[in-house]
Structure formats: C-alpha cells, structure tokens
Amino acid sequence: MQLVLFFVLALLAVAGAVGVVLSKNAVYSALALLLNFAVLAVFYIMLNAQFLGVVQVIVYAGAIVVLFLFVIMLIGGQLAPDALTAGSRRPARVVALIAGLVALAGLAYGLVSGALAPQTGQVQGSGSVQAIGRVLFTDYLLPFELASVLLLVAMIGAVVLARKPTKS
Amino acid sequence: MPSDYLPILILIVLATVFAIIAMALPAVLGPSRKTKAKLEPYESGMVPYTDARRRFPVQYYVIAVLFILFDIEVIFLYPWAVMLRQLRLFGLIEMAVFLGILLVGYVFVWKKGALEW
C-alpha cells in the first residue's frame, strides 16, 4: 500500500518537475512547481517528518510559489518565450546540463554505495511537531532567536532593494 | 502516522472530483453562445485598457518578501503553540523576544513607506 502510494506520488512529482522545465509560459512553470512542492510535502509526512511537511506546504507551496509568481509579474510574463529561444543561452544550457548530470551521478553513487540508505532505529517520533518544539525552545533557543534577526535583515534588505528611486 | 492523514487524502479526492464535475457539467449541458462582452475578463466590471501580462510596479516585491518572512514567523509559532503548556512563562518570553525583533522590522517597513504607493 505504502509502496503503491509512493510510486503514484513519485510519478506526480516527476511530472510536476518536468512541467516546470517544459512549460513555455512561466506562470504554468510556477504552477507545475506548486504540484511538485505539494507532493514533496506528502513525502515528508510519509517519512514521519510531519513538521517538515507542514513547512513544505505553508512556506514552499504557499509563500515561495507566490514570490515566484510575483517576480514573473514584475519582469513581465510575456518576456519569457523570447528569453528561452535566444541563441545566446546555449553556453548556459551546456553548463546546466553538465551540472545536472554530475548531481544525478552523485545521487546514483550515494544510492548504490548505500551512503544514502535510510537510518533505522531511534527515529520514531523525531519529526513530530512536539519533538521539534521541545528542542527548538530549549536546547536551540539562541538559534531560534537569531532566526528573527535573520528575518529582520531580510525585511530591511527587501525594502532597501525596492525603494522608490525618487530621492536621487 | 501516515495513516492519520487519510481524511486529508479523502478531502483532496472529493475536492478534485467536485472541481471536475463543476467544470464538466456546464461544458456538456450549457449552451455555448460566445459574445464579445461575455468573453471579457470582467463581464460587468472595470473595462480592461491593456493586456494584464505587463510589468508590475516593484513595490509588489516588498509585499511578496514580507509575506514570506511573516509566513516563516507563523511556522515558528506552530511548534511553540503545541509546546506552550510545557514551556509555561519561559516560552511566552521567548516568543515575545522573537516577535519583538520582527516587530522592529515591521515598524521600519511601515515608517519607510514601503507599504504605500
């Protein structure tokens, strides 16, 4: 049952990923990415990492895809087809292909050699919201508070980057 | 356990089936008489004056990034809300400091006028 579910979902995830690359329209690419993110959230839940699943839905499927769509709007959605067919992108494509193949080879090596084999034993419940909350608000208190500083820096950076150019 | 999420799966299936029915029934049963007025984006609203696929003002970027940042803030609130009874007053102070630092950013954004057009 679990295995059948995995293969159905894996097919959906790959279909979403392929859709991101193949869509001529950047908006459709972003929506295909949304499908991919949503299926990944289900994978996290199947791996007993419920908190990560919730993060995947709320942050990635929610906020990141929204940011992508906003950026597509900002640069103009109709510009994408020209950029895709331009011949000057050929070196970038070759580099991307090589990088992708290297990443794939690394993944294949990890799977074959067993380095990426799943941990067994003491992982029961470690991905639950309670377990993460317990360590986050006691042992990892300082990183948690520093995360707010990181968010503050990002906030200021966004405002500075997008400020009105009138005060020149 | 993954099996606890079965109601969500059922909900997704029901929502998908409903959406398919809601789109298929009008296509099959409804008469298709297209006029120019009917095909406009807002049949009885604003008159469109240009293509919607054009460049938008950069202020939308600030809105999008702020949305992401406060979304991440909410993510931290989730395990905190689950654990608040065990953490007691200490947890309340922790989150007050966290939200206080983010509030500084919010006040900065507001004072800078980044939310105004």
CATH superfamily of the domain at 1-78 and 157-168 in chain A: NADH-ubiquinone/plastoquinone oxidoreductase chain 6, subunit NuoJ
Give me the strand/helix succession of chain A. HHHHHHH
Q: At the first level of CATH, what is the class of chain B?
A: Mainly Alpha
Low-confidence segments of chain A, given as residue ranges, are: none
Largest sheet entry of chain A: none
Write down the Rg of chain A: 20 Å
Major sheet of chain B: none
Strand content of chain B: under 5%
Specify the number of helices of chain A: 7
Low-confidence stretches of chain B: none
Would you give the CATH topology of the domain at 1-78 and 157-168 in chain A? Answer: Four Helix Bundle (Hemerythrin (Met), subunit A)
Helix fraction of chain B?
A: 55-70%
The total domain count of chain B is 1
How much strand of chain A?
Answer: under 5%
C-alpha Rg of chain B (nearest Å): 24 Å
What is the residue-averaged pLDDT of chain B? 85
How does this model look, in words?
The complex is a heterodimer of chains A (168) and B (117). Chain A has a domain at 1-78 and 157-168: Four Helix Bundle (Hemerythrin (Met), subunit A), CATH 1.20.120. In chain A, 76% of the residues lie in helices and 0% in strands. Chain A has seven helices and no strands. Chain A has helices spanning 2-22, 26-46, 50-75, 80-85, 90-113, 129-136, 141-161. In chain A, helix 1 packs antiparallel against helix 2 (26-46) and helix 2 (26-46) packs antiparallel against helix 3. With 117 residues, chain B is mostly helical. Helix content of chain B is 66%, strand content 0%. Chain B contains two helices and no strands. The longest helix of chain B has 53 residues, at 59-111. Chain B is flat. Chains A and B meet through helix 3, helix 6 and helix 7 of A and helix 2 of B.
